[in-house]
Amino acid sequence: MKPKDVNREKGKNKPLIGVLPLWDAQKESIWMLPDYMDALAQAGALPFILPLKAADDDVERLLGLCDGLLFTGGQDVAPAIYGMEDQTGKTEPAELRDSLEIRVLELALRRDMPLFGICRGLQFINAFLGGTLYQDLPTQHLSDTTHSQGRPYSQPVHRVELQGALKELLGRQTLQVNSLHHQAIKELAPELQTMALSEDGLIEAVCLPSKKFVWAVQWHPEFLFRTDESSRTLFSTFVSACKSSV
Length: 246
Ligand code: MN
Description:
By secondary structure, this protein is of the alpha/beta class. The chain has a single domain (3-243), classed as Rossmann fold, CATH 3.40.50.880. It is 33% helix and 20% strand. The chain is built from eight helices and 13 strands. The strands form three sheets. Strands 4-1-5-6-13-12-11-8-9 form a nine-stranded mixed β-sheet, with helices on both faces. A two-stranded antiparallel ribbon has the order 2-3. Strands 7-10 form a two-stranded antiparallel ribbon. Helix 3 (56-65) crosses helix 4 (95-110). The longest helix is centred in the middle third of the chain and has 16 residues, at 95-110. The chain is globular, with a radius of gyration of 18 Å. The model has no long low-confidence stretch (mean pLDDT 95). The protein binds manganese (II) ion. Manganese (II) ion is lined by residues 147, 158, 179, 181, 198, 204, 218.
C-alpha cells in the first residue's frame, strides 16, 4: 500500500463523533470552541459539528452517521424539561438547543450510542432522565468552593472526590478540576450513578450503567487536556467506546 493509502485506511478507522453545536444568541448563529474538536481529534476521533435545526427524520439520518456524540457546554437547560419553573430569574435558556438535544438524546439512548457530556451536557442528561437542577448556585447552594472561575480555564480551581468507574479508570481518589458553571445537579436521575463529588457536595460526574458508555462531567476537560493526563484519559476512553461500536 502507498503511504497515502495507508493514511486513508487509518482515517477510516477514526470514529465519527457528532458534536452538539454551541449557540450564540446575539449573533443568532451556531459556533464551536476549537478545544472540543481538538480534544476529540487528539484522542483519535474525527469530530464534526451537527446542525442546530433538523427535522426528526434528518436527526435520525445524522445519528446513523455518528459512532458517538459529544454533548457540549452552553446555556441553561429550560426548567420545564425537569418539570420546574425559573425560580431565580437567572436562567439563560437556548430553546433551539433544547429542542435538538431532546431528540438527539432520546434516539441515541434508544440506539445505545456512546455519549459524553460536558457541563450543560451533564445537566441536560440528568434533566432528561428525570433529575433536577440547582438553577443558580450563588442563590441556591452558596459555598466557599469556586464553581464559576475566571481565565485561564486551564487552571483547576476545586477538588472532586472520585467514585465508581471513574475512580477505577483514573486510579486515584481525588482530582483537581476547573469549574465554569452556575447550575448543577440537584436530584440525581434515578438511573444515573455518581462518579465525582465536589468539596461542597455537588455531583460533578455521572454515568448511566445500563448503557455501553454514557458518561458526563461537570468540569471542562477540553480546556485541560493539553496539560492534564486525566482529561486525555477521559477523551480517549470515550473515543475507544465509540470505536468498539463502529
Ligand atoms: Mn464545579
